[in-house]
Amino acid sequence: MFLLNTTELFLLGISLIGFVILSLYYLIAYGRPLRALRRTDDTLESNKLPVSIIIYAKNDSENLKKHLPALLTQDYPEYQVVVINDGSSDDTDDTLKFFQNEYKHLYHTYMPSNARYLSRRKLAFTLGAKAARYNILLFTEANCQPLSDQWLSAMVGKYTPETSIVLGYCKYGNYKGIFHKLVAYDNLLTGLRYLSSALSHYPYTGNGRNLSYRKELFFKHKGYYQSLNLHAGDDDLFINEASTKENTKVIYTSDSLTEMDQIERFGIWKEMKVSRAATQRYYKKSALTFYHLESTCFFLFQVSVIATVMIGLQGNWLISLIAVLLYLIRFIIKAIVFSKSARMLQQNPTTGWLFLLEFIQPLFNGYVRIYRLFRSRKDYTFRLEN
């Protein structure tokens, strides 16, 4: 007869509850972009509103040579590309002048050299917004490029009279090595979270590598006034402040995607993660808490499964088998959802690495949070003077 003592019953119950909660996260929250794409009418607005693409550049000559052509040759009737050069010491200026001779819809300007106590990126984007000829602003970065010459049509086509923000997705390429698999998995996880939240009418952040909003919205919220004391936050904190369920739309069709270049070193990615962690503490909406609860649930589920297996092996082997089956079924559900989502976003699935990555990524995020605590506040903030 299969009898359970109190400890076995408790651990098996925790494992079962964790299995149900995590499965619901995968199927409902992370699976929402998949379901929405299947049932959404992909018809875009036919009126092609004029748009200004804004790019920040600092020592990005090689990136601009590589990616500007894809931005300057979009199949779109009326647009401009605005590049803000932040005191580059390489030949960024010569590169921009070369392209400007051929493409009259390219405009570039410079950052003032005496800017102090402000994030230079935020000041650059503010200058870019002021210099922009058109009301629709579309942001990407110098190390990114659209995957299609219909990128502008796709992104701007989501605008209606009620729409002020359009969130897009930027994929990470398929590169060899565990580090790049981790970056790709983290990028996919982050993207599915903010896309899903926006689809459920709770937008809370965006990605500055593929992001659009109206110029009038930017100045209505006084630009980056709420986060002037922070180095980062030019994309996520502004969207967190300005987005609502009424004014925000998302798009992640194949024509709307951008792709970022390979991150060469672990240290660069770590600083990107630390910078984002420093701004996330200022988020005003609860969506991020929702996903933090998932991480906590996953940790407790792992502990309960391991404990159940160990206790079961001491005599009641059947509960060990049940715990292992719960873990495997949960893993299969997640692998299917994430694999289909990755293909939808034209990102190479990391299914073969998933078992390892879902352990490493939360540990690395924990390390980032601890690392940030021991860094000086001056690394993330400015002292604003009156």
What does this molecule look like?
- There is one protein chain.
- The chain is an alpha/beta fold.
- The chain has two domains: 6-30 and 288-373, no CATH class; 41-265, Alpha-Beta Complex (Spore Coat Polysaccharide Biosynthesis Protein SpsA, Chain A).
- 51% of the residues lie in helices and 11% in strands.
- The protein has 13 helices and ten strands.
- It has helices at residues 6-30, 32-39, 61-72, 92-102, 120-131, 151-156, 178-199, 215-220, 236-242, 266-280, 287-312, 317-344, 354-373; strands at residues 51-57, 79-85, 106-110, 136-139, 144-146, 165-167, 170-172, 211-214, 248-250, 258-260.
- The strands form two sheets. A seven-stranded mixed β-sheet has the order 3-2-1-4-8-6-9, with helices on both faces. It has a three-stranded mixed β-sheet with strand order 5-10-7.
- Helix 1 packs antiparallel against helix 11, helix 7 (178-199) crosses helix 13 and helix 10 packs across helix 13 (354-373).
- It is elongated.
- The N and C termini lie far apart (77 Å).
- Residues 382-386 have low confidence and may be disordered.
- Pfam families: Glycos_transf_2.
- This is Glycosyltransferase.
